Amino acid sequence: MDRDEAAQSIIRRAALDYHEFPQPGKLEIRPTKPMASPRDLARAYSPGVAEACLAISDNPLDAARFTSRANLVAVVSNGTAALGLGNIGALASKPIMEGKAVLFKKFANIDCFDLEIDEQDPEKLAEHVIALEPTFGAINLEDIKAPDCFIVEKICSERMGIPVFHDDQHGTAIVVAAAAVNAMHLTGRDFKDITIVSTGGGAAGIACLNMLLKMGVKRENVWLHDIHGLVHEGRKEDMNPQKEAYAQPGKNRDLSETIKGADMFLGLSGPGVLKPELVKTMADKPVVFALANPVPEIMPEEVLEVSPDAIVATGRSDYPNQVNNVLCFPFIFRGALDVGATQINDAMKIACVEGIAQLARMTSTAETAAVYGDEQLKFGPEYLIPKPFDARLQHVVAGAVAKAAMETGVATRPIGDLPSYEESLKAAVFRSAMIMRPVFEAARTANRRIVFAEGEDERVVRAAFAMLEDTTDLPVLIGRPEVIERRSESIGLPRSFSSRLEIVNPEADTRYREYWETYHSVMERRGVTPDIARAVLRTNSTAIGAVMVYRGEADSLICGTFGQYSWHLGYVRQMLETEELQPNGALSLLIQNSGPLFIADTQVFPEASAAEIAEIVRASARHVRRFGIEPKIALCSNSQFGNLETASARRMREAIGILDRSDCNFIYEGEMQLDAALDTELRQRIFPNARFEGKANVLVFANSEVASAVRNAVKTVADGLEVGPILMGMGNRAHIVTPSITARGLVNIAALAGTPVQHYA
């Protein structure tokens, strides 16, 4: 076995293992309701289920309320045109269909059943699909050979009251059209003026041409070739109505003739169809979409060798501009299902095209960049369409599709508040979006200057851009202007970005003398000489930011993307601590599938005293209410309501006494172990007179080491998404993050810093 064969064998084994272990296949079914008691059983099945059945019998639209139908898609195939494999039959196509169902779930949270139907007759296959309408909210037809796929889709679409979408046709067409929109943008062309030469007369090829005509391409400017040559008038061999629509007048002509001067080549045929010498004869800046898989009609390097200014797309993931249906089908179905659309019409498809194209022209997010490593995600010839893991596809594309469905009258459940719907789509992807919504709404009413100590960090640069786009706050970045500009350019931010910022250059700021003198005046009786002050204010960006807030040149400081929390806290305390403003704990919000959980103090007090614990509790209540959440605070210890006499237990009990003697308008309880705080039944058994019911949503610990351990456990084991840590007690004048923070995390902290704390407690 040679090296290539060995490599292929390893790849094949890995693919098979992926499908076999730890359990066969890629899908399973899980319940969405509890099934732990006789009461649950009586509601899920007889007799309770009868109520839902009767409601749907009275009003069929109520199926969307009482069943999963409104979020359930059938992926249907007979395996006659399996992905790159041909007619392998229904059973052998099952791994592909399971994979398609997984993509629906992963990218748009749509539930799927894959249905492989062993039926070759297109009309009979259509009858099988039609009979499924009571079960599903939409149908995705997949891997059905042409021209059978046209027949099946036509029959089903005419007779069913739910969307029927053949992804091989329309999904491909939508993504091709989106890439073509941006290719026209980059080359200065207009659809109505271009000439297209296409190879491949199958379902996908025809659908792509149909979509391009809808975008403005003129029918007479399209030259379609298949395996038998040019589709022309009078040709009898291997013709069907779909091809007839593109028959050119005259006789058969060779590809070398029709492609001369062509603006665009569209290939959905086979390897090697387009030769480099033919590309040379195309128009300047040719657009070459060679989409045959796995080997395209021409390799991108061959195109660029003879035409360096060409724009090239393929179906392969190892080259730029991969035309991948996953950019389309999850999101067009998401929008269609959410409004109860009866079909996916042309307006919805065009909305999908425009949404995908628009997203590629937007600045990429840090989350997308993290997935794709060193790839340059900047709009241009090598970035025509967004990447599949760009999380914004959901709200941009699905929102546009839902809007188009409502405007064209095919929505049975129109959405009254489209902006709120789009926000909910964002929240489905960005877990912090919904809980941060009250904070961002409050931040929009403020105009605050937020200074970032580590302004050269890519995460900070991305966060600053997001602030300028989405808030009224002004980011101030401490760093060298040329580094910030270079960083901005490398991640594809607009050229105008850095001019909208305020940048403080530690190496050459005109206020340097004023800053070190200010720092020295505060610190001169704490051992800081003028020389030390000059050195600190030339090299220490956290100290610079703290001085700016002290002088009123910024409203809040954000620091900590590298280095020790306590190191940054020292400079915050030096410049910003007063009798009224003193750090009294760090609060971390962990967003889980089961809901939000706040943990304090994770950073400030290694061993908090009783008075400090009481202040941590009060401050936590204030900050939790900023999120629109009513706090239920558990003071956690190794002791359970007085059963141990450890040092931490005594401090917790003393803190509760302090709180009991003060005027608190929030619920707290303790001291208790962690399981009692989160397990209502356990707490009821051991302490039935506890002050709150249900799970605690705030956990306060007397030891920062324990608090940090719990926070890290929830983050890693329970997949909790952290917002914070929030530095409490400083009136939002400073926040110290941790090195693991993301760009979105910085945006969240900036929003918190952008509004004053409401004194609720």
Description of the molecule:
The structure is a single chain. The chain is α/β, with parallel strands linked by helices and 761 residues long. The chain is built from 31 helices and 21 strands. The strands form 4 sheets. The protein has a 6-stranded mixed beta sheet with strand order 7-6-5-8-9-10, with helices on both faces. Strands 18-17-19-16-15-20 form a 6-stranded mixed beta sheet, with helices on both faces. Strand 12 (474-478), helix 21 and strand 13 form a beta-alpha-beta unit. Helix 8 crosses helix 15, helix 14 packs across helix 17 (393-407) and helix 17 packs antiparallel against helix 18. The chain is globular, with a radius of gyration of 31 Å. The chain starts with a helix and ends in an 8-residue tail after the last helix.
Task: Please write out the topology.
Elements: H1 3-20, H2 38-44, H3 49-58, H4 63-66, E1 72-77, H5 94-108, E2 111-116, H6 122-130, E3 138-141, H7 148-159, E4 164-166, H8 167-187, E5 196-199, H9 203-214, E6 222-226, E7 229-230, H10 241-244, H11 255-258, E8 264-267, H12 276-279, E9 287-290, H13 300-306, E10 311-314, H14 329-338, H15 346-361, H16 366-372, H17 393-407, H18 418-429, H19 432-443, E11 449-452, H20 458-470, E12 474-478, H21 481-490, E13 502-504, H22 512-523, H23 530-539, H24 541-550, E14 556-559, H25 565-576, E15 586-592, E16 595-600, H26 610-625, E17 632-636, H27 647-661, E18 667-672, H28 674-678, H29 680-686, E19 698-701, H30 704-716, E20 721-727, E21 734-736, H31 743-753
Parallel strand pairs: 1-2, 1-3, 3-4, 5-6, 5-8, 8-9, 9-10, 11-12, 11-14, 12-13, 14-21, 16-19, 17-18, 17-19
Antiparallel strand pairs: 6-7, 15-16, 15-20
Helix pairs in contact: 5-14, 6-7, 8-9, 8-15, 14-17, 15-17, 17-18, 19-31, 20-31, 22-23, 24-25, 26-27
